[in-house]
């Protein structure tokens, strides 16, 4: 009996003995080329391994557009069968309102606390000791992606950290290359902000602000230097006019930009384009400075639906998402790290191996969505959107950020 069969057998013990096939709508915001390839692995596995049918509910526009639409449907009494959300506190109010399905029985039966690594991903959706999500991957935001072709065209050595990248920016521009690709959306700019600040202030000072909400540290000289570094990066991205993150990634793929600060989901775009890690592009975790990654990423939640067959289909999907075979296939396609620490990822590319090694060494920290509530996270995104789109002085941006941290939950 293979692992998936064992897992599904354990679900059968929790569900009704006789289950009708169901169409299960699954909402998500994975719509870029690499993301679509990854989500198709989940749909194919669900259709092949169960009697049910995955009905794809892709929502274009990323999490900023999708999350409000998903929450609105659930609150409005039109729930989907399952939905992607990020690790963290996005579903907290829905859970407290009794609108999300309790997965504790299946989590305990299958020993999720023993296989999810780090277990904090499960803790992020555990309320009053009850589990409400199945984590599917780990995404980290602290990556600099570098185009080899762009630097070679400019006659430059491939940089190994952010400082070397900045040192080559003038020569890139002389050769008609945009130094830094950047999509014009606040969440993308927040990612760049966080990665740059982490590189300047170091892990301890970064976590003191984002984890402990210490506004005094955020107002201090280390963070002043960090905001000035972000202002310098803003100048490098001035000629990057694209809107979406995957279009910015494409600038790196086509060698029209020197690099991009983006999460490791960018790997899916490189793979679809046939790019080879270490040959066509480099990946610098922690901007080449800090061997640490945040534990962002995705989990699936299952809205409460008063139908026994639908609930049984939900439990089968939950089991499948964390099964070894699906974890390998999905994460290889997505460019993310698996949540299981007991599977063979030897076929992963060089960039994923870097992330796996950092994870194995314990070089992790919580993501902003695990430390900030949704309102605080959005306030930071809005501030970054304004900062990157205007000539707002670094001092003014820092003062606004300190004010947000003072009020943060």
Structural overview:
With about 400 residues, this protein is of the alpha/beta class. It has two domains: about 20-140 and about 295-360, D-Maltodextrin-Binding Protein, domain 2 (3-Layer(aba) Sandwich); about 145-295 and about 365-405, D-Maltodextrin-Binding Protein, domain 2 (3-Layer(aba) Sandwich). The chain is built from 21 helices and 13 strands. The protein has helices at about 5-15, 35-50, 60-75, 90-95, 105-110, 110-115, 120-125, 150-155, 160-165, 170-175, 185-210, 215-220, 220-235, 245-255, 265-270, 310-320, 325-335, 350-360, 370, 375-390, 395-405, and strands at about 25-30, 55-60, 80-85, 125, 130, 135, 145, 180, 255-260, 280-285, 295, 300, 365. The strands form four sheets. It has a five-stranded mixed beta sheet with strand order 2-1-3-12-6, sandwiched between helices. Strands 8-9-7-10 form a four-stranded mixed beta sheet. Helix 11 (about 185-210) crosses helix 20 (about 375-390). The longest helix has 25 residues, at about 185-210. The protein is globular, with a radius of gyration of 21 Å. Mean pLDDT is about 90; it is low at about 1-15.
């Amino acid at each position: 009996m293979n692992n998936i069969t064992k897992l599904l057998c354990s679900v059968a013990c929790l569900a009704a003995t006789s289950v009708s096939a169901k169409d299960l709508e699954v909402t998500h915001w994975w719509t870029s080329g690499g993301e679509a390839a990854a989500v198709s692995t989940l749909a194919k596995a669900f259709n092949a391994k169960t009697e049910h049918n995955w009905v794809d509910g892709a929502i274009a526009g990323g999490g900023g557009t999708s999350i409000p639409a998903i929450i609105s449907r659930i609150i409005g009494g039109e729930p989907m069968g399952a939905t992607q959300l990020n690790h963290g506190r996005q579903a907290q109010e829905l859970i407290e309102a009794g609108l999300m399905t309790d997965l504790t029985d299946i989590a305990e039966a299958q020993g999720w606390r023993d296989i999810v690594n780090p277990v904090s991903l499960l803790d992020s959706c555990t309320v009053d000791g009850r589990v409400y999500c199945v984590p599917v991957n780990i995404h980290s935001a602290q990556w600099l992606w570098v185009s080899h072709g762009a630097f070679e065209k400019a006659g430059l050595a491939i940089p190994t950290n952010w400082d070397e990248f900045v040192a080559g920016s003038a020569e890139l521009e002389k050769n008609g290359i945009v130094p830094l690709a950047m999509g014009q959306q606040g969440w993308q700019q927040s990612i760049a902000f966080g990665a740059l600040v982490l590189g300047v202030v170091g892990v301890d000072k970064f976590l003191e602000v984002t984890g402990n909400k210490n506004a005094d540290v955020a107002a201090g000289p280390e963070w002043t230097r960090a905001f000035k570094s972000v202002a310098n990066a803003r100048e490098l991205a001035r000629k990057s006019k694209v809107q979406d993150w995957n279009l910015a990634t494409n600038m790196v793929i086509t060698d029209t930009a020197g690099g991009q600060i983006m999460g490791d989901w960018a790997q899916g775009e490189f793979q679809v384009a046939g790019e080879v890690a270490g040959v066509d592009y480099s990946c610098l975790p922690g901007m080449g400075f800090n061997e640490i990654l945040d534990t962002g990423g995705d989990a699936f939640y299952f809205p409460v639906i008063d139908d026994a067959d639908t609930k049984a289909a939900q439990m089968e999907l939950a089991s499948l998402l964390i099964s070894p075979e699906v974890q390998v296939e999905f994460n290889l396609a997505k460019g993310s790290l698996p949540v299981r620490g007991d599977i063979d990822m030897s076929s992963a590319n060089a960039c994923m191996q870097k992330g796996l090694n950092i994870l194995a060494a314990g070089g992790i920290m919580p993501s902003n969505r695990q430390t900030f509530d949704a309102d605080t996270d959005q306030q930071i995104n809005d501030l970054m959107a304004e900062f990157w789109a205007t000539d707002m002085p670094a001092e003014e941006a820092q003062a606004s950020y300190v004010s947000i941290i003072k009020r943060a939950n």
